[in-house]
Design brief:
globular, alpha/beta, about 325 residues, 11 helices
Length: about 325
């Protein structure tokens, strides 16, 4: 549990309580919000059986909190925000293809429910009360196993028919680059994700080129992780430092493309690699500054929220939408 803290003015003044649930491949995180801030939060293990087990776990979390009047659910995949159903969630067990998540949860919980992609939930938290509070045009990037993203334009988080507006992971940077899981080459995700950083350093570990990585991985006995890579970079390992520099430069280049189109003011970077922000944020800013003659000044910022960002964003989203439309999710919002 985390202490109560202010999370912006999105919530209603009559102190209704909303629960946000962020479903991940490993854990399901939750936060209860009231007008004053985060009242309670926690996490449980994600069931590995099927989608119905995940739904039942969400229902149990909602039932465990008294006085909740609305539910927001963030999922790691493609959703239809208008109809409240999931389209594709590759990293969760079960059949999520066109699964009527909102209808199912509304029926089981007896409460209004809204759902959205986890990157949009992250953006909702950071835009309403985090590092982009008060910013009209902002880009949000989440770094972890992959790369996600979202966009705020004219003070609104943008949604599309598939809730994929701002998915930065597959912005192409190099047509001759690494093959991406999406089938393309040289996508941002092949350079800037935690997976990409680990992959880039794996050869260094195998060839035993780095004394620092050798020690941190116990001569290869311990698996190389993004956290170990970050520790190595802070200890001055040149290979790890270069991997994070390269990731930061790629992030800045990709963000500057969006800046050219949307007159961005701020780029917020968070997700699982948020603790390593100091290792690549200067390179992000440097790449952005190289285009200021065309984009104007764009400031790169680390996210305010850590692992609780998705659940806080989902709860804020529910406070804005679920209570007023018990059986519907927000109407599609697209670029004008």
């Amino acid at each position: 549990m985390i202490g109560e803290r202010a999370v912006g003015a999105v919530l209603r003044p009559d102190e209704e309580r909303f629960i946000g649930v962020d479903v991940g491949g490993t854990s399901i995180k939750w936060s209860v919000l009231r007008a004053g801030g985060v009242e309670a939060s926690g996490s449980v293990e994600t069931p590995r059986t099927d989608n119905h087990a995940v739904v039942n776990t969400i229902v149990d979390l909602v039932d465990s909190q008294e006085g909740v009047v609305g539910v927001g659910v963030a999922v790691p995949g493609t959703v239809d925000p208008v109809r409240g159903r999931t389209i594709l969630i590759p990293n969760l067990p079960g059949d999520w293809n066109n699964f009527e998540l909102v209808r199912e949860l509304t029926h089981l919980c007896g409460l209004p429910v809204a759902c959205l992609n986890d990157a949009r939930a992250f953006a909702w938290a950071e835009h309403s009360s985090g590092s982009a509070q008060g910013v009209s045009n902002a880009l949000f990037i989440t770094l972890g196993t992959g790369v996600g993203g979202a966009i705020a334009f004219r003070d609104e988080i943008l949604f599309g028919k598939l809730d994929s507006v701002g998915e930065m992971g597959h912005v192409p940077l190099d047509s001759r680059g690494e093959l991406c899981a999406c089938g393309g080459r040289g996508c941002l995700e092949t350079v800037a994700s935690g997976t990409a950083i680990v992959s880039r350093l794996s050869r260094t570990v195998v060839l035993d080129q780095s004394p620092i990585l050798r020690e941190l991985t116990q001569h290869g006995a311990a698996p190389l992780t993004a956290q170990i890579a970050a520790e190595a970079a802070r200890l001055g390992d040149p290979w790890a430092m270069e991997a994070f520099d390269r990731a930061g430069d790629a992030l800045g280049q990709a963000a500057s493309m969006i800046g050219l189109l949307l007159q961005l003011e701020v780029v917020v970077i968070g997700g699982g690699l948020r603790p390593a922000t100091d290792l690549f944020l200067p390179q992000v800013q440097q790449a952005l500054d190289a285009r200021t003659s065309l984009t104007g000044r764009i400031e790169a910022r680390g996210a305010r929220y850590g692992t609780e960002a998705g659940s806080i964003g989902a709860a804020n989203f529910a406070a804005e939408h679920a209570i007023s439309t018990p059986t519907e999710t927000p109407k599609e919002r697209t670029l004008p």
